[in-house]
Protein 1
Amino acid sequence: MLSFILRRLVAVTPVALGVSVVCFMLVHLAPGDPLSAVLPVDATQETIDSMRAAYGYDKPLPVQYFIWLWHVLQGDLGTSISSGRPVVSEVGRAVVNSLILASVATLIGFTFGTFFGFVAGYFRDSLLDRLASAVSVFGVSVPHYWLGMVMVIIFSATLGWLPPTGAGPDGSGNWRPDFEHLRYMILPALTMSVIPMGVIARTIRALVGDILSQDFVGALRAKGLSEFGVFKHVVKNAAPTALAIMGLQLGYLLGGSILIETVFAWPGTGFLLNSAIFQRDLPLLQGAILVLAMFFVALNLIVDVVQTALDPRIERG
Amino acid sequence: MAGTTTPVTAGIDPAMGAAGPKPEAFVASVGFWGGVGRKLVRDPVAMTAAAIILIIVAVAILAPWITPMDPYRGSMLKRLKPIGDATYILGSDELGRDMLSRLMMGGRLSLFIGVTPVILAFIIGSGIGILAGYVGGWLNVILMRTIDVFFAFPSVLLAIALSGALGAGVLNSIVSLTCVFVPQIARVAESVTTQIRSRDYVDAAKLSGASTLTILRVQVLGNVLGPIFVYATSLISVSMILASGLSFLGLGVKPPEPEWGLMLNTLRTAIYVNPLVAALPGLAIFIVSISFNLFSDGLRSAMEVKS
Amino acid sequence: MSAAIDIRDRGGPAQPLLTVDKLIKHFPIKKGLGGKKAVVRAVDGVDFEILKGETLGIVGESGCGKSTTAKLIMGLIEHDSGQLLFDGEKIGSRALPMRSFRAQTQMVFQDSYSSLNPRMTVEASIAFGPQVHGVPKRQAIERARSLLARVGLEPTRFAARYPHELSGGQRQRVNIARALALEPRLVVLDEAVSALDKSVEAQVLNLLLDLKQDFNLTYLFISHDLNVVRFICDRVAVMYLGQVVEIGPADTVLASPSHPYTAALLSSMPSLDPDNRTEVAPLAGDPPNPIDPPSGCRFHPRCSLMEPVCPANVPPLDGVGELHRVACLARQPGSGHSLAPAQQVAA
């Protein structure tokens, strides 16, 4: 098992390096000079040159990359242009808020998705199956930012039950686990949970159908095992894949939450990215994307390892 | 093939008639796509979805000539009229412009920025994937490992990162989304091609002395493009949502052009005044997206022919 | 098409059509990260000749390298070392470029479905080869139809069909027609009838015999079914773990085998005739791993005649009768094996 983890780590290293190259290139993809946002409009050529040298932009790209990478590896993602604070601390605060929201959403989505998936897989082609399929098609087809708006329209604007935006009553800031803050989380979390719900329901349905049609289930039934016993077997066989999908969905939500966070003004990474883009705060944009992508890579790795540990059928050799 | 002016039906050359055996006796066979088409026609869900898509596309194309009002001209006095208004059937927006006309007009840009990236990615991704799959070896390793890097980004994040760095605009949004879908299509194309490459009929074609290019064109392409195409159609829905999402964030289409995502954004302020009108553009995105998804599902199950 | 004298016959009737000389193919496999590099010795020094107009059978268990040998001959896989001569010319040399060799040698694969393009009509599949070689489409289609008729498929009914609309036997007939479309001299049949029902198999075998007469063909017939080989082959080569262990006239080899492996193969064959039952023990277990084959005679761990000399010495492929050669120490004079015949005294 240890050698398996090591080998996965070795395999993931080039991917992580590639991700860092893409993030590094983002800044240079941007039209115009990366300095244009910091420089005063009337800057002399001399000022520009000295600034260029100060930021290291006068060196060739590969050299710039390795200098940047060296800083990143030491935990230095640069300084935010708009706030003047280190990017690491800005991103760090936002990631915590995003992670809380995405985790809750994944949990909700997983619970309902698994339920729908199991029901649909067990009762193939029944009315329940059709309903579950409809739910999953809905989940993957609905523009989630619009769903968020609809939620706000129903529960805030019309019914007035829940707050429409923000993470807490004190305006913005950080989410805390108390009743007031919980009310702020309900709408964004529910909206976000629809995405993994559809995917998880679809996968579990296929998985359960597959397992039930396999010979060993027939053998178990023939042996006189109770339906509950069969169910336990199905759960045991479906669990590794289900957990893997849950992990991946968490990663997708964390990276894909920008639209929902914008709708609900949730102070997470999405919100941060949004403001970084519109203030052309490229170091902040770069840092946030690097952190999110690396998080996704790490999550993939963990899922891979956990799935392998749980599933005896996957070769570890 | 060259030089024949007579139409060739079901692979039978009518010119054969004079010399060869009687052509009228030949049993014409339904080809693969014919079979898929027949199955698809019998699928009510897929057909409904296809009809909806066709109607929306037709309306979008004809919009400049059929909109009841000018989608650009507003009136401060007639802002946010409700749905069912005498003049404004679907109400009016925050600048007093007719919603129905703007929705019809908005379909043009929304469909364009949503479908174009998938078409471009289909062309580029298939090229990369088929090349990697057929040539194999080092080229495959290099191409596919590069693709893996892009898979390390959730697609929404990658789209926003690229268009955020490139800046707002229709072209930039199309470029970003194309970059998001190329790796996904290339990966599917690679795995399908690798499968087909190991089929005996490809070996048989090699044995007949055909060049690699001929084998690719005649033997491989027809068998790999189908599955890749089906996969690509399943991406249209995501692409529509993402493209409008970029506009929703202010990264795509710029005002005053009507586009569903952008309209949804500008109407956000109106949710307390006229919530139903505010939600309309999103409903349009949803209907198109779910139609493409259902049609793609139908196409996929229609293509699962053989055991 | 069929001619008494083939102008392509350059070496004369005595020149073997195909000479396979010390053919070797090892497939490298990776054994994990930092693991030792290993090779599968799929084909490990194979020698035989195919004479003009004969049918040579290759038999052996699955994994013995018979299909790999076929693919090496066809150039679908590159061989590591050894030589392939076609009618006396080295394949791929200037005198015989790969392209012109391939026009004279065709192959029929085992899986009749996988060997036909599912998106092409049957006649288009057959016409593809001639078209590649510059035959105009109309003529190529005509040739395809006449070949379909020749293999027993009415062109009016079958020419425009797709592979999934045909039965396994019909598809294999199409594959045979496709192989004949380029007017080859040598046809390699790689388990070509193995996937068919017994009744269909017999029909296809008879068809193959007829075609061989009409088109002046030479067959390399690869199979694991000794009954089929006995029926169709003039000579037979028995392969074990990448090597030929016995080769000779089919009647001799299959009636009185010299190699214990051949004998074991024959005895593992079901027979309804009580007189035909042999005393030899049928084969036990699976063949050893070709990554790390046994030392000396590779068959020794499963051999009923195993003696201490067997793991120590590699038996050469030596003659035991006219045209009959075997690689077994028990048949080799002076090998040290107790059953070995006495050393022949030079006359």
Protein 2
Amino acid sequence: MKYLILIHSNAHFQQRWEALSEAERENFGRGHFALSDDLAASGELVASEGLADPSLATWVRTRDGQTVSSDGPFVEVKEHLAGFYLVDVDSEKRAVEVAARIPDAVWGLVEVRPVLDMSGWDV
Amino acid sequence: MGRLNQLDGPDELRLRELSARALGILVRRHGGFDSCEDAVQEALVVAARDWPRDGWPANPLGWLITVASRRLVEIWRNEAARRGREERYALTSLGDPAPVPQADDTLTLLTLCCHPALTRPAQVALTLRAVGGLTTAEIARALLIPEATAGQRISRAKARIKAAGARFEEPREDERTERLASVLEVLYLIFNEGSTTSSGPALHRVELCAEAIRLTRQLYASLPHEGEVAGLLALMLLTDARRPARTDAERRLIPLAEQDRSRWNRAAIDEGVALLTPVLATAPPGPFQLQAAISAVHDEAASVAETDWPQILGLYDIHLLLAPGPMVTLNRIVAVAMVHGAEVALAELAEAARAPALDGHYRVHAVRAHLLDQVGDSKRAHEEYLGAARRTKSLPEQRYLQARADAARARSDASSGE
């Protein structure tokens, strides 16, 4: 079963992150590397990436077949995505276990979402 | 590289069957399941590359054993060199592949691949490779995961088996039942994985349903009197028989009640029923036999109305006693509605839905919606269908449930407009 583990952030946590010492930030990074190494070794990792700052985001919309892109959302977003892990695991319990190892989980902004599959109930 | 399907269908299957036999023989001769498996896999890839071009060797199994054995020597030499030790590995009968023992290693191999030290996904991947003879690339495509992930899953599984000290031998009598149950679960999981992914981007995808049936057939050939093995094979055949009618051209799910039964695979149904009939009379009953029996009643009926629902209900009653589970409870309630009416079923559902395992489960909403539709409460049926659509983890089911919700709303609007 695939699960997407989303790491959210917001302005408040951005500030807390920036206020950490360099050693603390490095510890965070090491936690992420260790986790992705373990998931790769166990054959559970599909993909994992950290995302660049939301100020670098481009918002895309199409209108009458034309592409219109702009630098930011029209309304100030309260939360943004900071990174993700896509895992293929045995159970939801295991996905939650993985999520709990994400260093950002101490801030309570890690979300586990099941990925839709193509199964069909035959009744 | 990494694909066996340069060979056409029958040849590919023949090669894969030979690869499992070659592996069994190699492990018997030399021990070391993990290195033997690597060696056979490499021989297999060479065969898939060369045989279509040069033709099949006179003794294909002997060829595979010889090439894999040579590869095995190289693997061991490399390992020995890496460890810096001067170990001597005695390999017997290298250039002499002729005498091939007739031992049936299918069960032994399956039992090893489904070793309890492994997680389910690891058991599935290793079974597909060591017993199914699929390459890592094929397994990755079939399971919709990256090749590196599949490769890692397999090598980790083999390392675990080695660390657990598991040997290539038939399970001891006291653990036999448990180990066999685990093998059957893994085979059923592979079968279901096939129906889970079969509507995805299926080009060149190895057909997991067919693979699960093929492996279960092999197991049945070595254990023909084991009721649950026959039951599982029958269940797979009876379920797979309905596949041609299960989705429409747009890949939309068609419920059993609306399927075009002339499109069901009669040969598969006949085979499933023929497998099941003798074991139901002789073997101790088990969940796979019961589910197969229920499937057989559906498959033999000309329509929903002509289905023997009292028999289905009776089978679910036994299933619930023998091996209770939330999905058995729910499916039984659908049968209750057909025998005793939707009102009775709704009352039973209200009771059953209190169980923690069913709390908030989308199928509770789906069944309730179906029953409310039957009693003519389209308004609540609409809400329940929507609730189910939001909660399912399956894309085709979501589409189906949303369409049902639309239809219920249309009926509700029509009746309130009168």
Protein 3
Amino acid sequence: MKTVYLTSTALIAALATPAFADVKSDVLETYADIAAAGYSDSLTTAQALQTAVNALVADPSAEALQAAKEAWLKARVPYQQTEVYRFGNAIVDDWEGKVNAWPLDEGLIDYVDASYGGPSDENAFAALNVVANPAFTLSGKEVDASKITPALLSETLHEADGVEANVATGYHAIEFLLWGQDLNGHAAGAGNRPWTDYAAGDICTHDNCERRGQYLVAATDLLVSDLEWMTAQWADAGAARVGLTGNTDAGLAAILTGMGSLSYGEVAGERMRLGVMLNDPEEEHSCFADNTHNDHYYDGMGVQNVYLGEYVRIDGSLVSGPSLSDLVKAQDAALDVEMRSKLGGTMMSLGRIKTAAETGFAYDQMLERGNEAGEALVMGGVNGFIDQTRSIERVVKVLGLDGIAFEGSDSLDDPDAVFQ
Amino acid sequence: MRYFAYVLALLVTPLSAQADSHNALIEGIVEAHILPGFEALATQSQALSKAAEESCDPASDTLRQAYGRAFDAWVSVSHLRFGPTEVNDRAFALAFWPDSRGVTPRALAGLLSEQDPIASSVTDYAQVSIAARGFYALEFLLYDDRLMTAGEAGYHCTLVQTISADIALTSKHILEGWQSGYAVTMLTPSPDGVYQTDKEVLQTLFKSLATGLEFTADTRLGRPLGSFDRPRPTRAEARRSGRSSRHVMLSLEALSSLAAHLAEGDKALSGKLEAAFERAQSQLADLNDPVFAGVSNPQSRLKIEIVQQGIAAIRTIVRDEMGPALGVAAGFNALDGD
């Protein structure tokens, strides 16, 4: 015991030296480099989605719809790995709702099944159906929606009436427009929107095919421009990078805040555990595409990436550099081992969900009442995330960031607190 | 097995003086705050279940009073979200709220219209969606204009009885969890345990204070307040049974007791906290608005906002003064995220 104590005291002294401050800056540099690469990869894959969507709308066919769906699925892989940047970085958190808001009352956007119901106590516009309505009244104002434009979606419809479930933009709005509602309940199968929803003339199904195409194109254009903006914020001299590196300790706290808040409150709680407890097949992050297993998996990977200071880009190249892991190891090697093994354990649990989903046991089936195997799979992921959060808190303590990270956990109440 | 390991650790680990005082603090909170709270919940929930057996009529005064007492007991421990409440989603099964997607009425309407046989067994009922379990679901069956009379009468009665019995069983399990091991777990941290040090235990208690305040300010008050332009009176907690304001009061009382324990020995801090709690509580009492209907009127709305600000002031003291005094930080909590 005594030896350990002395060793760590010696290290604490070492931490105060200028050399160690350099290491901290290098760690922040790696973190920002991974963000730049992750958002840039998200942009590239969103541009590929844009090409596929434009092709679908210009010349609709089953093949074109399938190509667009595949492009969407690919685009999610790098994006989900960037979610770990949300809660620690106010600039990301303030922007995120435009691209990845969830859950949504999809009846705002397009036709839905009768079982969806109409306006609810919480949301008077849950069944507005913009695709079918070129003009409507929103919070007492007449809205001209004769042409569906990016501005209409982002400025008027998104979060209409102050209700967060009115999601008019981002990945999940596009997902709904590509897949449609998943009406299979807890049975196998994702949403099954016919390609003829985009067809011209008599073969158009569910009416308003042209307006639906306008909506899809507008939402995809917005996604691309939003990702362009965020990619620029992480480039050299970009606002996100500058904000992060201004104060090294606050920057380190931002990394850990992002890791902990995403792991615990957001993914383990809001996105995974709630679904199991409610047995509701719609309580899955990508409920139209049935891609939830990948959403969780790549969220987990993002957390692991920023701790290890490593990210594999979509072209296969590795971005890496000095990491939080290095910092922790220098101070408390056992804690570094603990943190790595918890992160690895979570990835194993998430990998099991992904494996089962990819071989036919879909995430919404796992949520069914009385489905013990499904519950065990999902709860394995939940427990992994919760358990790793405890180690993240220990890391916060060992790096002497308590005071700062404390404010950081208030990330939503007071996003700027992290930078004070 | 674990239980014995912790006892052993307690016997062989020499404790420093500071650890002793921390340990005494933790012991005081467990014995004077936590255990009595969960004992009351178990007792009142058992009484609720008995009352439902005697009369399942939603309009029955006996049933409604028993329901109110059990719900009171829950709200008074609703900030203690760790350990036994989190096993098998027990706390969620007692209290699923807020329900921003309206799942509770939908789930109950589904059970009632299908006369789902799962309601005939309390043990099986544990598999049902948390949205159709616990105090908030029972409120719909006892007080919602539509759901209090929905479905076949006999099935409705069974559902009221089963949900009440499920509440009683869940509350009993939580109490047993505390009595049979978790109290010891908190009193005897060990390197291989849930808590490695007394500090980690204190952090958990501190966190439940901070999170409880956050929930009461942002959710119990924040949801009905909405925004100035768009107040949301229908989002007030348990408004059908007229309990919204009562819940804020009960939670402030419980949090004030926990805060007093955590500030023990620091006179200046205790005094400051006590005054801040008293101010918020008396402002709330003066409102005389059981369901926060006043959020829609600019003048009465301001008074509700003042209560919320009063709680914000307590949160600041807790964060900036109590945290450093205890040497702990709030860390992450389940409310982080969206």
